[in-house]
Design goal:
The radius of gyration is 19 Å and the shape is globular. The chain is 32% helix and 28% strand. The chain is built from 8 helices and 8 strands, in the order αααβαβααββαββαββ. With 221 residues, it is α/β, with parallel strands linked by helices. Strands 1, 2, 3, 4, 5, 6, 7 and 8 form an 8-stranded mixed β-sheet that branches. The chain has one domain: Rossmann fold, CATH 3.40.50.
Length: 221
């Protein structure tokens, strides 16, 4: 029998970067159940206005996870190509009634692949909600070239990038960009929404973390 010492200090949660290194994706998906689609995706969908239900446009969702954005796209009448590297996330997506029906109807294609093997199709909208930072820096330029090339002229990108002041910027397998670098990605696009979030936060079970995130909606010229 182990008797705790009441005078011993309470164990501190692991530093935020250590928690990030051992990211528990199933637990993350559990926390996201019932969450609405990201604001950047909602803004992009609204910017397209009414779509033709007889000829719905295609959206590519990179790092779709369990499908919180995919469901919104499908309910808005879009066809969707959805990619993620987590089989657990994609199993959850396929189990969602709206997604399951769309797969049968041919409106949803689901692809299990990491970013190194991702080849997004030509699409009116490419969405990447909080996923691109998890592309290793060595592969980011090539991935971004594929993403930009996949967006049709007049089409849109929506998503997030992590900034250089984010606490996770010390992790070598993540891509973190300066404000100038993010803006440079869209030098040939029209920024319809650009918001920089630079704030502290705390998460249960994790140490204090500083977030530095760029939220972007851009139209390709």
């Amino acid at each position: 029998m182990t008797i705790s010492d009441p005078t011993s200090p309470t164990p501190k949660p692991a530093p935020a970067h250590e928690a990030a290194q051992r990211r528990d994706w199933p637990a993350y998906f559990d926390r996201m159940v019932g969450k609405p689609a990201r604001d950047t995706l909602l803004a992009a969908i609204e910017a397209f206005g009414e779509i033709d239900p007889a000829d719905p446009p295609l959206a590519a969702d990179l790092g779709c996870g369990a499908g919180r954005d995919v469901v919104e796209l499908l309910e808005s009448g879009w066809r969707v190509w959805a990619q993620d590297a987590s089989s657990d996330g994609l199993d959850r997506l396929r189990a969602h009634p709206i997604c399951a029906r769309a797969i049968k109807d041919g409106r949803l294609e689901v692809v299990l692949a990491d970013f190194a093997d991702t080849r997004p199709p030509r699409a009116a909208l490419v969405n990447a909600s909080f996923s691109l930072p998890f592309c290793p820096p060595s592969g980011f330029d090539a991935l971004w070239a594929l993403i930009y090339g996949a967006v049709e002229p007049g089409g849109r990108f929506s998503g997030q990038f992590f900034g250089d002041r984010d606490d996770w910027a010390i992790l070598e397998d993540r891509t973190h960009l300066t404000r100038a670098q993010v803006l440079g990605l869209f030098s040939k696009s029209i920024l319809e929404s650009f918001r920089e979030e630079d704030r502290p936060s705390a998460h249960a079970g994790e140490a204090h973390k500083h977030w530095h995130v760029f939220h972007v909606v851009a139209r390709k010229g």
